[in-house]
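Weekend entry, working from home. Most of the wet-lab plans are on hold until the incubator is repaired, so I used the time to fold the two sequences that have been sitting in the queue since the last round of cloning. Logging both here for the record. First:
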Amino acid sequence: MISLAEMQRRCYFAKDMAELRDSKPSDSKELTASDEREEGVRKPQEDNPLPAFARDFPNNPELRLLLVAFEQGRHDVVREGAPKLAESTDNPDVARAARELRSRIEADPLAIKLMIGIFALLTLLTSWVYFFHKH
């Protein structure tokens, strides 16, 4: 039996996926070469709107939805949908692409190790001051 929280989570996920399916690319103004020089931006390529890492991904509708969610910053949708897609697909390329897309939103392992080291150093210094420093 499915709990109420699980049903709500599934409904929200289905709603998010439906919104992504129905969403259209935002209408952005065309940039000229002078705008590019002034603003330091590059004109988007109309022939391939995908990010550079995703250009070799296979053409799969569910994967495209996850890429749109990634582009829109909806990492919660990618975090939930990519493992499901990787498990449910028969195509190993789609599964590999879904796993790679999921890994793109993970925290950097070096950053995690540095945060743990900083926390340990802070704990050590605080303990040293508290216990060994004369007040």
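Second, folded right after the first finished:
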Amino acid sequence: MFQVCSLEKWHRILKENQISKLVLNCGKVGSIPHVSAVYCFYMKMYVQTYISLVAATILMFGGLFFATNAHAAAMCNFTRDLYVGVVGEDVECLQVYLNNNGFVITDSGPGSKGSETQKFGSLTETAVKKWQLANKILPATGYFGSQSRQVYYSLMGSGGTSGGGSSADDVAAQIEKLKNELADKAEDKDVESAGDTYSGSDAADARDLMNDAAEALLDAENEIEDNPSATEINSAKDNYEDAKDSFFDGIFAYLDKDFDDAADAFEDAIDSAEDALDDLGASSEAKETEDYLDEVDDYFNEVEDKVDEADDEGEATSKSEDLLDEADELLDEAYAALDDGDYDEANDLGEEAEDLIEEAEDSIGDKAEDLDDRLDELKDDLDNAWDDVDEALDADEDVGDAEDLLDEAEDALDDAEDALDDGDEDEAEDLMDEAEDLIEEALDEL
């Protein structure tokens, strides 16, 4: 059952309590400082994939209980593919199997243990993904097809809950041992505090590499899932597995405070993950460019929210809005360049967009830009009013004082423009108010 990880390493992990220490520390603030959420996620994924499905439930959700093995449920008869939206007794049988083998559909309500349904929904899909991941069915999509059926029948025939060569009794004994270790660890009131042992530049460098490696693994995993038919998919999977092995070697070394070895292992993990990406044609340059554009896009959304908030509060935002429109267009072009494999162009466009976003943020509350826009709008209103007057005159209608009023409005707008050029924004605003009133009066005369 645990052949993915060598038997020697498995016994070492159990003997040294590394896994229980690792996962418990993910839930104990201060036990191991600076350990990121992405590291905890990957440690939990490791537990789920490499130890056992039952042990994974114990570790990830904190419950100290013992799940039944594969023979607790009757053998299912799968004659078709199962996926979201499918309904039938085979779906219910699959849910029973998953619930009884550590892949809980849900803790309560429809789909929970004892309340399985005949509908394949999103919760069932999530549980199937976990089961597929544990049994190395890649990509783990949640679609229960021919490969999943084959693995299921193999497991049911051998009596295990995930692939391998250990007997059910051996598995149960090892899980029970792990459960007891976890219980002892959880009840221990004198958990060793890491204190300053994880401080220092070497530890910090190792942590940075740990996060970089975890991100590289995530990228490789996503690319493998997205490209199941790639020519070099098998090579990519092999490199991905090498990356995971190196990653966890680095974690063990980090916990042992051997930071140099940890850094080396994490670097190896990054290299292997990038090899997997190269196998799939997803180069590290492409990922770096995509990550950069995503950061710029996040910055765009952040500034856009600030501009909207300022607009709601009555602050000047016209210039900021115009700049964001330009930045948005550049970002679209940058992502298009990324799709075309032109990474230099994508980065250049991203930098231009970033500069515009920064300028937009700095321009929030810039009254002069708003006044320029208002001046242009009033000039348009004035032209339209003159057109109305001309039409009325052509029709021999009485226009009253409309012409004189529009002449005055035109003079006021000219003066407002001069005031803006001189930087006298208050005077310009007053003159625009006056011009707007004169235009309205002129229209009333018609």
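Plan for Monday: verify the second prediction. The two ends are 91 Å apart (CA to CA).
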